[in-house]
Amino acid sequence: MKRIIFATGNAGKMKEIREIMADLDVEIVSMKEAGVDVEIVENGSSFEENAVIKARTIMEHTGELVLADDSGLEIDYLNGEPGIYSARYMGEDTSYHIKNNNLISRLEGVEDEKRTARFVCVIAAAFPDGEILTVRDTVEGRIGYEEKGENGFGYDPIFYLPEYGKSSAQLSPEEKNRISHRGKALRKMKEELLKRKEK
Length: 199
Description:
By secondary structure, the chain is of the alpha+beta class.
């Protein structure tokens, strides 16, 4: 295991991935850094299916170990929306400021106890021998009443963490890596890869 391609072009995500996976002692590169430009059709019906589609597509193209994640926000009161469509909700080019305010307005008048939500992250590993492995983790919270915080991206400013008394976008990067859905899923995947390295 000399290097891992992570199927993303998101620089913020790559920074987070490298920080958490640092002690794997493996080079981790983005698709762009690996010179991979492949159309991926995410037509799965779950986070697991979409993560596997991404990882397998790039692994078949490169013959290397590939990791991919699929993540999103599930709001219980809205029957799990936006869910697997989190990135595409209201259109991919729509700003998160508009998306966030739309979700807040859809929850108008809904009391605290019913504003429960979670961020879900599934990471898939596609090995060159064809084996596929997935891990899932979540972080539970509530949907706030307004956007707060400058540190996060996406839905972070409206995702309120009662035990911290602030939104996900008000956490420091260190706090966020420790408790975030992606941080927890990355650590689970790292454990799995370390086990394989030792074999």
